Amino acid sequence: MSKTESNQLEIKVIVINYDPIIKSEGKKLHEVCRWNDPKILTDGYIADLKECSGGYVQFKVVDWIDVNAFPIKMDGFLYTEETYMECVREWKGWHEPDAIDYKAIIKDFRLDERVEKREIDEVWLFGPPFTGMWESTMAGGSAYFCNSSPVPDVNCSRIFIMMGFNYERGVGEMLEDFCHRTESIMWHVYGSWEPKETHAWNRFTLYDKIAPGKSACGNTHFAPNSTSDYDWGNKTMVMSSCDDWLNYPNLTGKKRLVNCEEWGNGDIREHHKWWLRHLPKAPGKTDGKLNNWWNYIVDFNSYPESR
Hints:
Blueprint: E1 2-3, E2 9-18, E3 21-22, E4 27-28, H1 29-32, H2 38-52, E5 57-67, H3 81-90, H4 102-108, H5 111-116, E6 122-127, E7 136-139, E8 160-166, H6 171-190, H7 200-204, E9 238-240, E10 256-258, H8 268-277, E11 281-286, E12 289-292, H9 293-298
Helix pairs in contact: 2-6, 2-8, 6-8
């Protein structure tokens, strides 16, 4: 993690891509199954987060490892080409329990050592469906819940995040993983997350269903006017203070009517970009917390409240 001359935050990433060559086809798994190219997904994800952070967050892939195998499960199970492709053809029969062995991955690629030496800051894992990865998980000495329980007993003084991406899905789902990571970290920073106006994070995530007339930006699953999970295409107009959060911490309380036309009419990627663009990114502090929440989300080791 470092600041560039133009005051941008550079985050060094290692990508570990489980995309085995299917020998019977002579192609990688994502090609055989007509799923997305992980490199194209990576480029889109990096570009979106740079845009949404106002150019501040610069993820840089410093190492890319293509793994010609499936990742090992917690119970030691390992798919072969034959067993996995049979599941794909039938779309059933997947191994249970599904969970991936994070500690084996950390050991095999010396991830704890590389984080400790500051060669890398975080880890992005790509894999096919039913790989058993969490959307995000945290490891290291003071790791805490990050949309999943932390990986236990990882000997590293710095905490680090391991993102889990499924290349059957798109950039929108990758952003959803990042949004849930954001929720977990900001919950940790502020110490609570509930539908009350007690602090900035709580106020930012209010939506009309749980706080009638007090809607702000909502959360990953709920837009300001959503009535259920993933209801990003709702055309109902509600009053929201979402614009006001672009001026944080100088909030005026001003509201206006909004609906799904603001965030892409139900498109997952557009909604998540809209939500991320509204995250505060101003200099200074308010009530002891940074006004630029992106620092907590990607540079969490640098601040006691996000460690």
